[in-house]
Design a protein that fits this description.
The chain is of the alpha/beta class. The protein has three domains: 121 residues, Ribonuclease H-like superfamily/Ribonuclease H (Nucleotidyltransferase, domain 5, 2-Layer Sandwich), CATH 3.30.420; 128 residues, Helix Hairpins (Orthogonal Bundle); 118 residues, no CATH class. The chain contains 17 helices and seven strands. The strands form two sheets. It has a five-stranded mixed β-sheet with strand order 3-2-1-4-5. Strands 6-7 form a two-stranded antiparallel ribbon. α6 crosses α10 and α13 packs across α16. About 2% of the residues have low confidence.
Length: 411
């Protein structure tokens, strides 16, 4: 080929055991056939040989791969170590591109490799500005925290089921049925009958210790009286009591693990980014870390709608044949940790910030469910987050919608 070498886009379809390379020139022409290589040291070495055959040098090519699970990381490190620049793309985006690219919806590893290269060419992608290794540790821990919290929630739901059988009155004695004191009573005694037969001084000691002094003998007497009158079942009571004790131990263990994770996450979070995000009402340390880890480089999201889609907060609508559904729902096809963090932050923002509060109230006034109204606030929050991260300046509270509508001179 005469003259300057054409730039090449090297699309790599990522899989657990074997990856596939497909190359395209910047003018759209396919360069060679698909090349499969193993996800090991020999496979990586064979990839370098293939790149030499294609004359795809680090100076004239861009490697593009989907962020499929964790399987892309080793290959990314290998290629970067050999001087290649890489762009990491969300599989949701390439899947949408596939659907727009062909009516056949063809999907094979070999076809996908060239499609990824075509997506990069069509979008004129450049290398990911933020190195994945900079944010990967934080993302790993925030996603692990998300996993542990989900496990803890499942355990609490199971404990509720057990407690409702052996001591149903206990939940009404505390503002939070999963409070440390309620769990300690279940974990220590297991059933209403055992609570009722326990000496009041022993029960008081348990209540006072678990509540850190907030409750004492008066609450212990209330618990003992409720246990004495309980309608809890006695059938398989010993087995249920054992299960309750075991579950409370697991929940206590997960509480300690989540606390340790929070400390490590706080250490890894960039202080400037953390401060910027926490300037937004409703965003606390854990939400800030999750948002920072999931968003990474804010410039990869051209507008707030793309961040919404990445979090799976974009709308879907049912339509088939003559049926056209009016209701729109979240797609929930995206980062669940980011979606949960945005929803948690939005629920706080609508309570602490007049701008978001007025928007929430306007949706509720139109008959929207609380969850729908909060999700609307979360979508608005996406724009705020991108602006804060891009401009590197703290959030400035906006006037409420009502105050903006007031005429000059009105009080």
């Amino acid at each position: 080929m005469e003259g300057a070498a054409l730039k090449q886009y090297l699309g790599i379809d990522i899989a657990k055991h074997e990856h596939v390379l497909g190359a395209r020139f910047e003018d759209g022409r396919q360069h060679g056939g698909a090349f499969a290589f193993a996800n090991d040291d020999r496979g990586f070495a064979s990839l370098l040989g293939r790149l030499r055959e294609l004359e795809a040098t680090p100076e004239t090519s861009l490697v593009v791969m989907e962020s499929t699970g964790h399987y892309w990381m080793a290959l990314w490190e290998f290629l970067v170590a050999h001087g290649y620049e890489a762009a990491i793309v969300n599989p949701v985006l390439t899947d949408a591109f596939r659907k727009a690219d062909t009516l056949r919806k063809t999907k094979t590893d070999r076809v996908d490799a060239f499609l990824i290269a075509e997506y990069a060419r069509f979008k004129n992608l450049g290398p990911s500005r933020v190195s994945p290794e900079d944010a990967e540790g934080l993302k790993q821990l925030t996603r692990y925290r998300h996993h542990l919290v989900a496990e803890r929630t499942a355990l609490k739901n199971r404990l509720t089921s057990v407690a409702d059988r052996i001591f149903p009155e206990l939940a009404g004695l505390f503002s939070d049925r999963h409070s440390a004191t309620a769990r300690a009573i279940l974990g220590e005694y297991g059933s209403a009958a055992r609570v009722a037969s326990t000496d009041i001084r022993t029960l008081t000691k348990t209540v006072r210790s678990a509540s850190r002094g907030r409750h004492g003998r008066e609450k212990a007497v209330e618990v003992k009286e409720a246990a004495r009158r309980s309608v809890g079942v006695t059938f398989a009571a010993d087995a249920l009591a054992f299960e309750a004790r075991h579950i409370t131990d697991l929940i206590d263990h997960l509480d300690a693990e989540v606390d340790a994770l929070d400390a490590e996450i706080a250490r890894l979070l960039d202080p400037e980014v953390g401060a910027l995000l926490q300037s937004v009402p409703g965003i606390g340390p854990v939400c800030a870390a999750t948002i920072a880890a999931e968003v990474g480089d804010p410039d990869r999201f051209g507008d707030p709608k793309k961040l919404m889609a990445y979090a799976g907060m974009d709308s879907t609508k049912s339509q088939s044949g003559g049926f056209d559904g009016d209701a729109q729902h979240m797609s929930k096809r995206g980062s669940a940790p980011l979606r949960n963090a945005l929803m948690t932050a939005a629920d706080g923002a609508r309570r602490f910030d007049p701008y978001f509060g007025d928007y929430y109230d306007s949706l509720r006034a139109r008959g929207k469910h609380h969850y729908v109204a909060v999700s609307g606030c979360a979508r608005k929050l996406c724009g705020v987050i991108l602006a804060v991260l891009r401009e590197r300046r703290p959030y400035e509270p906006r006037p409420s919608i009502q105050s903006q509508q007031r005429q000059p001179g009105e009080s």
